[in-house]
Design goal:
Layout lengths: L5 H8 L3 H12 L10 H10 L70 E3 L23 E3 L122
Parallel strand pairs: 1-2
Helix pairs in contact: 1-2
C-alpha cells in the first residue's frame, strides 16, 4: 500500500498545477502509517553495510534521505513516495518497480541505475539551494511512467523504451501538466515504442537515438537534433518540426504523420 502523510501531500501540492494537486489528493486517502524505517535507521544501515545495501520493497516514504550514498543498492519495489533525495547517489542502484512519485530529485545521481517499470509522477526538480538537475545518463528507464519537468537533463544513452511520458488527456488534472525535456541530452538513447505525446522536446539532443515506433504526437520538437536517429514507424502527427534536424536520419520514408506535422517545411533534412 502506498502511504502518505501531511508533509508529503503539501510537498506535492507545492509543485503546482492541477495534476500535482490531484496526485496529492489521491494519496491523501491512503494509510497514514509510518515508513518501515526512519531516515536515521537507513543512514545507519548504509554506514555499517559491508555489501551493497538491500532495501527492496521497503516503505521509505516521506523520509529525508538527502546526500545519502546508495550506489549499487537494491531498492527494487521500494516506496520512496515524497522522500527527499536531494544530491543523493543512486548510481548503478536497482530501483526497478519503485514508487518515486513526488520525490525531491535536485542533484540526485541515477547514472547507470535500473529504474525500469518505476513510477515518477509529480517529481520535484526545482526549489531550495541545489539547482543541479538529476542525472540519468545510461540509466534503464524502460517502461517507466513519468510526468516531470526535466529540461537540460542528462539522459544520454539511457533506455527509455516503452516509457510513458505522454499526457493522458482522459485525466483532466494531468492535462494541465506535461513532461518537459527541452534541451535534454538524449544522444544515443533508446526511445523505441515510447509515448512522448504532447511533451516539450524543443532543442533536445536526439542524435543517433533509437526512435523506432516512438509516439511524438503533438510534441514540440522545434530545434531538436535528430540527425542520425532511426525514426522508422515513429509518429510525428501534429508535432512541431520548426527547425528540427533530420540530417542522416534513418527510416524517414517509414515515419508516420509527417504530412500532418506542423512546420514540416521548416525542418532540416
Amino acid at each position: 500500500m502506498i502511504r502518505a502523510r501531511p508533509r508529503a501531500i503539501r510537498s506535492i501540492v507545492a509543485t503546482g498545477g492541477a495534476f500535482a494537486t490531484a496526485l496529492a489528493l489521491s494519496f491523501a486517502a491512503a494509510s497514514s502509517q509510518a515508513a518501515d524505517l526512519t531516515a536515521a535507521q537507513v543512514r545507519a544501515i548504509v554506514a555499517h553495510a559491508a555489501a551493497p545495501v538491500d532495501l527492496a520493497r521497503k516503505d521509505l516514504s516521506d523520509l529525508d534521505l538527502s546526500n545519502i550514498d546508495l550506489a549499487g543498492a537494491n531498492l527494487a519495489g521500494a516506496n520512496l513516495f515524497a522522500s527527499r533525495l536531494v544530491s543523493s547517489n543512486f548510481r548503478g542502484a536497482n530501483l526497478s518497480g519503485a514508487n518515486l512519485n513526488g520525490t525531491w530529485l535536485m542533484g540526485a545521481q541515477f547514472a547507470g541505475a535500473n529504474l525500469s517499470g518505476s513510477s515518477m509522477l509529480g517529481l520535484v526538480i526545482l526549489g531550495g539551494a541545489v539547482t543541479a538537475r538529476p542525472n540519468f545518463a545510461g540509466a534503464n528507464l524502460s517502461g517507466v511512467r513519468m510526468i516531470a519537468d526535466l529540461p537540460n537533463t542528462d539522459l544520454e544513452s539511457a533506455n527509455l523504451s516503452r516509457a510513458r511520458l505522454g499526457v493522458d488527456i482522459r485525466n483532466q488534472g494531468m492535462g494541465q501538466m506535461r513532461t518537459d525535456l527541452s534541451n535534454a541530452k538524449l544522444a544515443g538513447a533508446n526511445l523505441a515504442g515510447a509515448d512522448l505525446s504532447r511533451s516539450s522536446m524543443a532543442f533536445a539532443d536526439l542524435r543517433g537515438a533509437n526512435l523506432r515506433g516512438t509516439n511524438f504526437f503533438a510534441v514540440k520538437l522545434a530545434g531538436a537534433n535528430l540527425s542520425g536517429a532511426d525514426v522508422a514507424d515513429a509518429d510525428f502527427t501534429e508535432a512541431d518540426l520548426d527547425g528540427t534536424v533530420f540530417t542522416g536520419a534513418k527510416g524517414l520514408d517509414a515515419a508516420k504523420g509527417m504530412d500532418k506535422a506542423a512546420n514540416r517545411e521548416r525542418a532540416v533534412y
